């Protein structure tokens, strides 16, 4: 018998993640991100109560490019978690279990969250 050199299990070079698996992982990651983002929100609220000097400092930090990137990530995570949560509610009601529908709803949650986050930031900047 010839010794064939091949991987013992699917390798990253040949294995493609299904969108439903990526969506599940993303849901968990955004849940953790929302917890961390809530700490940032709490920091901002405590700064508002602490006085104008500390509030100005926190506003400066959150107004920097890194702060805005973090806030945008928080906004996106919020919308993604919301849309994927609605998807899970549909599953709890017994809808959307077929593979094509599950794939479509996963993509809808991903793309929809990006669109909603961008729209929220456009509205927020237009409201200034």
Please give a quick description of this structure.
With 128 residues, the protein is mainly alpha-helical.
Question: Which secondary structure elements does this structure contain, and how are they paired or packed?
Answer:
Blueprint: H1 19-50, H2 52-63, H3 65-92, H4 99-127
Number of strands: 0
Largest sheet features:
none
Strand-pairing-aware structural class = mainly alpha
> Quick one: overall form?
elongated
Calculate the mean pLDDT score and round it: 92
Our Rg estimate from Cα atoms comes to: 21 Å
What proportion strand? under 5%
Query: What is the helix tally?
Result: 4
Terminal residue distance:
74 Å
Uncertain spans, ≥5 residues at pLDDT below 50? Answer: none
Secondary-structure element string:
HHHH
- The helix content, as a percent range, equals over 70%
What does this structure look like?
There is one protein chain. By secondary structure, this protein is an all-alpha fold. It is built from 4 helices and no strands. α1 (19-50) packs across α3. It is elongated and about 75 Å long.
């Amino acid at each position: 018998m010839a010794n064939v050199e091949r991987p013992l299990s699917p390798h990253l070079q040949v294995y493609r993640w299904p969108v439903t698996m990526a969506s599940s992982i993303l849901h968990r990651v955004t849940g953790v991100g929302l917890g961390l983002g809530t700490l940032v929100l709490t920091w901002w609220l405590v700064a508002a109560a602490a006085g104008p000097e500390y509030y100005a400092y926190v506003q400066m930090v959150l107004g920097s490019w890194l702060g805005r990137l973090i806030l945008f990530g928080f906004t996106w995570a919020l919308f993604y978690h919301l849309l994927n949560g609605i998807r899970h509610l549909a599953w709890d009601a017994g809808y959307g279990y077929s593979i094509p529908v599950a794939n479509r709803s996963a993509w809808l949650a991903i793309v929809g969250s990006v669109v909603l986050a961008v729209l929220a930031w456009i509205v927020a900047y237009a409201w200034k």
